[in-house]
Amino acid sequence: MTILSDFVRKKLRPIEFEFITLPFEIMAVGRSKITTEIGLYLDVQLIVDRYTEIAGEIVNKMAPYHYAAISFQKDEKGRFRYFVCTCVTMFQCGSKRTMDAEEITVPGNVLCAHAAVWARNNADLTVQVGKARRLFYEEVLPACSYKQSNEVECIELYGPASRQNMPMLDLYFPFEVISGEKE
Fold it and tell me: 106, 173 in Cβ contact below 8 A?
């Protein structure tokens, strides 16, 4: 059996969105960079490397361990902030190296479109996240009565299931409720 045939045999669960409130407040410590959609392909490794420098020294990590990639909304020039972080239970200065780390909080009562995104392996995870994002923008968002958050565009939440043989992550698109529009 080849690696390719093993890859093809693994059946993926379909990507399905549901509307939920974020199940918990996300408090996170990490590093970010202002980038563009095209620039992100070059910048993501730089951001991850900068985050990795401090990741081991971040204190009060959420149990079980979760990390996230949070994309903020684009500005008028198409630039956005991409934040790679560890989820924590409380903010606290851990060491001299983490003193320049960034901290953010996303409230737990925010309405979101949520999808569990499954992949055949870690390399396939990026492809599946891309498919889920496309599904959200082409089908889910146009058909709903909500407006996307003015701040956070998307949250990729990596928990224990993201480190399994067939990894899974939770993808959240936060909303602002607009009354009187499409249902």
Answer: no
Which residues sit opposite 155 in a β-bridge?
70, 172
User: Can you tell me the distance from the alpha carbon of 71 to that of 84, in angstroms, rounded to the nearest whole number?
Assistant: 9
> Cα(28)–Cα(88) distance, rounded to whole angstroms?
6
Which of 170, 96, 176, 172 minimizes the C-alpha distance to 144? 176
Please check whether residue 64 is in contact with residue 161, taking contact to mean a CB–CB distance below 8 angstroms: no
- In angstroms, the CA 125 to CA 181 distance is 34
Tens of pLDDT along 96-153? 555 678 999 998 889 999 999 999 888 898 899 999 999 999 999 999 989 999 999 9
Which amino acid makes up residue 40?
L
Alpha-carbon distance values, 79 to 73, 137, 170, 177, 180 (Å):
8, 18, 24, 25, 31
Q: Which residues contact 174 (CB under 8 A, 6 or more apart)?
A: 22, 106, 110, 111, 112, 148, 149, 151, 152, 155
Please provide the DSSP assignment of 122-181 as one string.
HHHHHHHHHHHHHHIIIIIHHHSSEEE-SSEEEEEEE-GGGGSSS-EEEEEEEEEE-TTS
